[in-house]
Amino acid sequence: MLFPYGAKSMPSLEQDLPEHAAKIREALSENSALKEAFADYQTACRKEEAFQGSQIERAEWARIRQELLEELMRLSGCSTRS
């Protein structure tokens, strides 16, 4: 994937949820709600990292991304407790 000069790479599920990413990815093929939430997560990642986006828009997409991470954890049955 190419990014405009100066842009960071997009966050990945493995960066955001390293302990649970593999389990979530495994469950994607069997769970349509999880698949939809994952697609929304990817969209939020792209929007958050949009080179031309304003700081306010990026902050809102970051908040949405965090909510979607919580939804991915819930839908995959991963515990949020340590």
Radius of gyration computed on alpha carbons: 13 Å
Give the overall shape, derived from the CA principal axes. Answer: elongated
The chain-level mean pLDDT equals 84
Instruction: State the helicity in percent bands.
Output: 55-70%
Strand content: under 5%
The helix count comes to 4
Low-pLDDT ranges = 1-7
Return the structural class. Answer: mainly alpha
**Distance separating the two termini:** 33 Å
Q: Specify the biggest β-sheet.
A: none
Q: What is the tally of beta strands?
A: 0
Order of helices and strands: HHHH
Describe this structure in words.
The structure is a single chain. With 82 residues, this protein is mostly helical. The protein has a domain at 18-74. The chain has helices spanning 13-16, 21-27, 32-48, 55-76. Helix 3 packs antiparallel against helix 4. The longest helix has 22 residues, at 55-76.
Please specify the SSE layout and strand pairing:
Layout: H1 13-16, H2 21-27, H3 32-48, H4 55-76
Gist of the model:
The protein is built from 4 helices and no strands. It has helices at residues 13-16, 21-27, 32-48, 55-76.
List keywords for this structure.
82 residues, mainly alpha, elongated
